[in-house]
């Protein structure tokens, strides 16, 4: 659930950067790795679903400021982090700044 509201200034900055650097419609995942804990708790189908959501820029259970930071990170070549709440656990999906890898892990493994 989104808890904070983006300011008009933040939204304007995102639009300006998208115009300059081009709209990023998906996240390049690179090599995908998941911890064994993730697979044992969530199973393969849930892991694949989280990857699809992350790739489509569905950042999961983050507030609007974190959403803004992910959008900026995509444009500026920085790390992108999604957070999903599944089966009473929090799962992170993290794509590195060079887009060569994506890691899926439980929050307590971070």
Task: Give an overview in words.
The chain has 110 residues and is of the alpha+beta class. The chain has one domain (8-18, 27-109). It is 43% helix and 22% strand. It has 3 helices and 4 strands. The protein has helices at residues 8-21, 36-55, 64-76; strands at residues 31-34, 80-86, 89-95, 101-106. Helix 1 packs parallel to helix 3 (64-76). It is globular, with a radius of gyration of 14 Å. It starts with 7 loop residues before the first helix and ends with a strand. The model has no long low-confidence stretch (mean pLDDT 85). Keywords: Endonuclease, Hydrolase, Nuclease. This is Type I restriction endonuclease subunit M. GO terms for molecular function: endonuclease activity.
